[in-house]
Amino acid sequence: MPPTARALPALALAATALTACTGTPPAAAPSPAARPTYELPARPVRSDETPLKLPPVRDGETEFTLIGIASGITSISGSHAEFTPKGVYTRVRVSVANNGRSSVLFRTGRQELLAGGRVVTPDYDAMNIRRQPESFTLGSDMRAEFDLWYLLPPGTRPTAMRLYGGASLYDMKDEEGARVAIP
């Protein structure tokens, strides 16, 4: 075979490789469209409350966001009572969402505050005076917002919460909970 005949296939291969290198790069795969979000109106923080900017935590299919805290509350009043406690109240504003397909029985009295080395559950009298629910059905794709009231010894600082989303297919006995640190 003449030398030019042998060089011809190599030359064709080199030309093909060069055109592949100098062409326009392939188009990037389209990125998935960002999911739209709800634009909710801003709400003012209550005068005695400090806003919390914490990431949500999950217990099973229930998502919690702590959005505000007020500590050192020395008395409360409601539509039918005024009360001075033997200690001070801490009030935590909570947003809870059920991301599951089934309803869950949500119990506010199950939510625990960790403070001063103790585990504290919501104070029944304060919750009742301030007309906060003991429990409610949290429907599928439902969000609710409420206050949890805790009675603490004076000078005790809350450090964390353990939040329970209700019995679900992930946690039938509702024993796990989700922990969130309070700054």
TrEMBL record:
The entry's keywords: Signal
Glycoprotein listed as a keyword: no
Comp. bias regions, Basic and acidic residues: 45-57
Signal peptide start-end: 1-22
Domain of life: Bacteria
Region spans: Disordered: 25-57
Biased composition (Low complexity): 25-37
Keyword Signal: yes
Protein name (database record): DUF4352 domain-containing protein
UniProt organism field: Bailinhaonella thermotolerans
